[in-house]
């Protein structure tokens, strides 16, 4: 009976014990609670009980199979590494048994983007907790949810030890019709880049998230229920919502549609990244060699080393458009590129392809498509 590090094996629950105030399952493998030759050392196959397993009744434990991963091997009293495994739950197996792709489940917002994790590093996205206590990342715009909020999310797939979700801001409504009035609930309050307040609201029909830009004085708050009219759809399929009791100027409707299409282009993820500038660094300094020659090229290289992706320059992190007009006067300030570029579309594109070729090589440059829009 031998085990390999990193491999997953099916163990059966034999009994439950407590060590130093912690609850453990004693497990059996091929009918044995320990390996041959280790009986005298009282080493047993065991794994720490997870919080959600504390509610299991004794009848639930009988012959229950728990997939466990071999983390490492025990060390004897003399300091020698043995062949006796130290086990942990295989989280991926638990998730695959519990969740089905395409189904909707409840989760709680456990952490917000920017909060510090256990390594004291800022979190790149929301973390939501399932009923088992496992945490998963949810990539939607900051300000969408509050900590502790209960969410109903649709699982897209299980990847490793984490769930991947369908983005509620990317699913287009199919049952809401133009001109009709529907009920919505205010989930959160946010602001556009120019300081305009809007609400993230959830419809009562499909439980999708939308944006509502109130007119005049704002009396509503988070948790309020609203009846709103679907005044139209943007070019990208987002709802244009208005107060059904008032009138909205056509120019204002066009402004709302523009805010929607600019503001919800998509959320950053493995295949989508935003950079607000190719000249200005995060500290606000003008350094095209650092920003374009290093930061942006590092992202391009990352996409090329995976399955590709889309890098949008001139966009803020939430997808709203900044543009590159403020960058263009500094296009010729590189200390590493002596070529002078005029501000025609062809020459601006050439600046990017030339930087890719110099930083990553001609082959990389031939595989990256640069477009100005």
Structure report:
With 373 residues, the chain is of the alpha+beta class. Helices cover 17% and strands 31% of the residues. The protein has a five-stranded antiparallel β-sheet. The model has no long low-confidence stretch (mean pLDDT 84).
Radius of gyration: 27 Å
Strand residue percentage: 25-35%
**What's the total count of β strands?**
17
Order of helices and strands: EEEHEEHEEEEEEEEEEHEHEHH
Report on the biggest sheet.
5 strands, antiparallel
Number of helices: 6
What percentage of residues falls in helices of 4 or more residues? Answer: 10-25%
Alpha-beta content class:
alpha+beta
In short:
Helices cover 17% and strands 31% of the residues.
């Amino acid at each position: 009976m031998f085990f390999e590090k990193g491999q997953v094996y099916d163990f059966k629950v034999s009994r439950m014990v407590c060590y130093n105030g912690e609850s453990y399952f004693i497990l059996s493998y091929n009918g044995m609670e320990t390996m041959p030759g280790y009986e005298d050392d009282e080493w047993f196959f065991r794994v720490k009980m997870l919080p959600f397993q504390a509610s299991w009744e004794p009848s639930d434990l009988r012959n229950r199979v728990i997939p466990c991963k071999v983390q490492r091997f025990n060390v004897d009293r003399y300091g020698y590494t043995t062949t006796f495994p130290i086990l942990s739950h295989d989280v991926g197996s638990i998730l695959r048994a519990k969740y089905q792709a395409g189904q909707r489940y409840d989760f709680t917002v456990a952490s917000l983007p920017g909060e510090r994790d256990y390594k004291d590093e800022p979190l790149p996205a929301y973390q939501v907790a399932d009923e088992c206590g496992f945490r998963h990342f949810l990539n939607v715009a900051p300000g969408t949810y509050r900590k502790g909020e209960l969410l109903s999310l649709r699982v897209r797939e299980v990847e490793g030890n984490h769930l991947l979700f369908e983005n509620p801001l990317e699913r287009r409504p199919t049952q809401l019709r133009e001109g009709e009035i529907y009920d919505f609930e205010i989930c959160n309050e946010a602001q556009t880049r120019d300081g305009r307040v809007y609400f993230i609201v959830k419809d009562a029909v499909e439980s999708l998230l939308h944006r509502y830009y109130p007119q005049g004085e704002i009396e509503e708050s988070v948790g309020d229920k609203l009846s709103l009219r679907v005044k139209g759809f943007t070019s990208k399929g987002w709802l244009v919502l208005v107060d059904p009791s008032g009138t909205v100027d056509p120019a204002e409707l066009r402004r709302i549609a523009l805010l929607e299409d600019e503001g919800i282009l998509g959320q950053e993820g493995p295949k989508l990244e935003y950079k607000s500038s190719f000249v200005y660094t995060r500290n606000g300094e003008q350094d095209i060699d650092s920003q374009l020659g290093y930061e942006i090229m590092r992202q391009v290289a990352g996409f090329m080393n995976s399955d590709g992706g889309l890098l949008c320059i001139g966009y803020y992190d939430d997808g709203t458009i900044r543009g590159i007009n403020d960058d263009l006067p500094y296009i010729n300030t590189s200390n590493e590129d002596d070529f002078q570029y005029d501000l025609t579309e062809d020459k601006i594109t050439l600046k990017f392809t030339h930087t890719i070729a110099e930083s990553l090589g001609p082959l990389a440059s031939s595989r990256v498509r640069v477009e100005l829009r």
